[in-house]
Amino acid sequence: MYSVRILVLSLSIVGLIPAQDSQPLSPDLMGDLLMARKQFREAIDAYRKGPQNSAMIWNKVGIAYHQLGDLNAAKRNYDKAIKLDKNFADAINNVGTIYYAQKKYGTAISRYRAAIKIKPDTASFWSNLGTAYYSRHRIADMAQCYQKAIELDPQVFEHRGLVGTEMQDRTVADRARYHFEMARIYAKSGQNDLALQYLRRSLEEGLKDKLKMTQAPEFAKLRETDEFKQIIALEPRVL
Q1: What kind and span of H or E run contains 213?
Q2: Domains of the chain by range and CATH?
Q3: Which of 5, 94, 197, 231 is deepest in the core (most CB within 10 A)?
Q4: Which of 111-125, 145-159, 160-174 is predicted with the least confidence, judged by mean pLDDT?
Q5: Are the C-beta atoms of 112 and 125 separated by less than 8 Å?
């Protein structure tokens, strides 16, 4: 729904479709359009012309700064949003992503869990929590959170959009192990194509222990497929 609105706005501005009305875009909508174009500083200027008592506006300003890599400014604006609405789960989650980027994983986990308590059906919150658990080497907890995220949104880890109201973390260390765990989770969910894709990535990132692939119970239905056998035949990348 969000991306459709941005597309309509974009096409109307360049004259490819008629504008729905002759009124100028609100600061909120103009900011959204500029975010979609990755013009983050211009988006910040647009959002700041919006209502100063809007938690949503300050959260979006924070996201724009986040995309610019200015984590301190991003957090200040997320905090403004939370001050205006203490139950604004998206902003609470976004603060968690700041702490995660700073490698303060325990604090990030507490923020993600707080956001989930308010909005338990948001897949990206669960994926963020799982990623933070992974960074603390809590693999079982990571798998449980990722499984919940996939149940809520089967494509949660494949989304690539920048425009929205919540940030989603994907930066993890030891990508070979991470991709292997993702393959197991997708296989358990019955998404075999994605499971095979992540298995291949794990080898490309340097996973050396192929016994994990051949013995993991989640891959029982995949082991006899040609695709699985081709992946097993690959040599791991030398790091």
Answers
A1: helix 211-215
A2: 2-152 (1.25.40.10), 175-232 (no CATH)
A3: 94
A4: 160-174
A5: yes
